[in-house]
Specification:
6 helices, 434 Repressor (Amino-terminal Domain), about 110 residues, about 0% strand, mainly alpha
Length: about 110
Amino acid sequence: MSTKRRVSRPKRGTPEAMTFLEELSGGPLTLAKLLRSIREGEAITQAAFAETLGISKQHLSHIENGRKTVSPERAARWASLLGYAESQFLRLALQDELRRAGLRYTVTVDVA
């Protein structure tokens, strides 16, 4: 008998899903946390996920652990590749860049 509590998950790529992931991760969602959550949620190894993204396992590890950031162009490409909303990946990539620079702004992304 499992002691894990079943949690109702919102549809992936929606704003509700992002809020859900922020609650699970215990803080503001970063692109690194989102990528790790996607990978672990799908029970995919770092090596297999890195191959899907077209990067090395080491590079993915650096991203997931916050040692590297992801460019907006790459974030958009990965969102499409993984079937998620580009706007969410872009927002997180840009927010990560601002946070790393020590700038206290909040990013919103709208289609032009």
